[in-house]
Write a structure and sequence with these properties.
By secondary structure, the protein is an alpha+beta fold. It has two domains: 173 residues, N-terminal domain of MutM-like DNA repair proteins, CATH 3.20.190.10; 126 residues, Helicase, Ruva Protein, domain 3 (Orthogonal Bundle). It is built from eight helices and 15 strands. Helix 7 crosses helix 8. Bound molecules: zinc ion (ZN). Zinc ion binds next to loops.
Length: 319
């Protein structure tokens, strides 16, 4: 699952590539990923919307999405937490959450010539090259200059939601997000204060992964932050000293920034917008390194189940 450094990588790359480009056409092949308006998509994820008023109709959301996006120009691409925010001409905003396996591949003429539209969309050396659009390509954006943006999602948990710019404040998920870890607003005082209010059974790894505490930190970066801080993932938040909390806090920014600099970690399924891989995986100290020697002390990295997640740690470097 992409975390903050991976989403930030996608945002920076798409901002550079898409700004000032105009959408010529959109082809939605899986309408259940599409939302129209600020409301949630619901568990059923119906591909249809019903219109209200005198003339009630059932309309495929994909067709509305295609019609509304045609001719729109991309003004900017940014993010809040792990939600991508595309500002478009005509006062529209496209919100995209990649969830587990959503991915964008942007192909201009140069890249198309180089790759023949074939990409290793699953991030494994053994994964086959897939010709795009493939069976996991659910939305295809064509631009006026001939470039194409493919949206793939193997597991289909992601969504693309089109709203009016004025509706941004009504988007529930945005209103629920806690502070951005790389913002000035995320201070040590706030972190310490929130940690005192943690519930009894919450471990420090779960706490770091809680979007209401701080956004964008998932399995990979919580493991790496705790390694740098020397604290084991299964420790209960309420049992961690202020000094240790300070250490953890002080590692959040540097670890995430290192991930961004490496263009994300492709140990999961993440790939960059040109189909290449992020390099952060080589710099991991603990995540994905169970049974391998610690890069600092040589002890064997261990792992522990915490809820549905696995935390990896060095039994010597982390207390
Ligand atoms: Zn160690």
């Amino acid at each position: 699952m992409p975390e903050l450094p991976e989403v930030e990588t996608v945002v920076r790359e798409l901002h550079k590539k898409l700004v000032s480009r105009t959408i010529k056409s959109v082809n939605v092949r899986a309408s259940k990923l599409i939302g129209i308006g600020p409301a949630g998509l619901g568990n059923k994820r119906s591909p249809f919307v019903k219109t209200t008023g005198d003339k009630q109709e059932t309309i495929d959301k994909g067709r509305i999405f295609e019609r509304l996006l045609k001719g729109k120009r991309v003004l900017s691409v940014r993010r809040r937490a792990k939600l991508l925010i595309f500002s478009l001409s005509g006062n529209y905003i496209l919100l995209v959450h990649l969830k587990m396996t959503g991915q964008f591949i942007f192909e201009d003429k140069v890249l198309k010539k180089k790759t023949g539209s074939k990409y290793r969309i699953l991030n494994k050396l053994t994964a086959p090259l897939v010709q795009l659009p493939g069976k996991h390509t659910h939305v295809i954006f064509k631009f006026q200059d001939g470039a194409t943006l493919y949206y793939n999602d193997v597991r289909k948990f992601s969504y693309l939601k089109l709203i009016k710019a004025a509706e941004l404040s009504q988007v529930a998920e945005i209103n629920e997000y806690g502070p951005e870890p790389l913002s000035r607003g995320f201070t040590l005082a706030i972190f310490l204060e929130v940690s005192k209010k943690a519930s009894k059974k919450v471990t420090i790894k779960q706490f770091l992964m809680d979007n209401s505490v701080v956004v964008g930190i998932g399995n990979i970066y919580s493991d790496e932050i705790l390694f740098q801080a020397g604290v084991r993932p299964e420790r209960l938040v309420l049992g961690i000293t202020n000094q240790e909390l300070r250490k953890i806090y002080s590692q959040i920014g540097p670890v995430l920034k290192k991930g961004i600099k490496a263009k994300g970690s492709s140990v999961g399924d993440f790939i960059r917008t040109d189909g290449t891989w992020g390099a952060m995986g080589k710099y991991h100290f603990v995540y994905g390194r169970r049974k391998l020697p610690c890069k600092v002390c040589g002890s064997i990295i261990e792992s522990i189940k915490l809820g549905g997640r696995t935390g990896s740690y060095c039994p010597h470097c982390q207390k």
